[in-house]
Predict the 3D structure of the following.
Amino acid sequence: MGERTEQVITLSLPSSMQHTDLLNAVVAEILKETDFAEDIQERVKHAAIEAGTNAIKNGNRAGPSAYTTFKLALTDDELNINTLADSEVLKDKPSEIERAVELSLPSSMQHVYLLDVVVTEILRDADFPEEIREQINLAAIEAGTNAIKHGNKEDPLKRAVILFCLDEDKLTIIIEDEGEGFTRKEVADPLDPENLLKSSGRGLFLMEACMDSVTYEANGTIIKMVKYKETSEE
C-alpha cells in the first residue's frame, strides 16, 4: 500500500460568530476536491460548523482580541478538523488592525483556489465596489500563485501564509513564502517590447496595477499589498 499523503490547511479567524460563514466556505471548497459522497460532505460541513461554533464561543470568553485556528488535514480518504482556541498564530498582527484572517497553505497549486474563497468572504461585508473587489481578488491570487510556484517552487515541505487585515479605511494583504527571495528591479518589465513574449513579471505587474501599494520585504519573501477605500470611491 502506498504512503498516504496529507495536505494541511490552517485558517485563523477572529473569535466572532460572523466568521463561521468563512469557515463553512473553505471546508465546502476543500470537500469538492475529495471523493466523498454528497451526504458525507454535508455531514462533514455540519460537523465543522458545530466544532467551529464551539471553538469561537470559547474564544469569545478570552476577549475581543482572541483568535481561533482551524487545522484542516486532508488525506486521500479523510478530512480531519482540529480547533485551537486563543491561537497565537496572529500574535504579530499589526496593533491598529481590528479584523484579521490568516490562511496557511501547502505549496501546491491545487490549493490556490482557496484564496478566491477567503477573499470573496472577507470582502462580502466590506465597503468596496464590485470592480475593486475583482481587482483585489486578482491581486491576491497572483500573489499566492507566485509564493507557491516561484517562491516555494511547489515544495510540499514549504508553506505560503497569507494574512488579510481589514480596518476602517483599507485592506492589507501580506503574503509570505519560504523561498530564496528575489529583487523586484531585476524582474523584467512585461510592457517592454523586448519582453512581450516572456511570462515573467506579469503577475507582479497585475498586483501593482490592481492595488494602491505593493511593497517587497525580507528579500522579496514577504509582499505587502494595500487597497484604500477612499481610492475605491473616487
In short: The first helix runs from residue 20 to 32. The radius of gyration is 18 Å. The chain is about 35% helix and 25% strand.
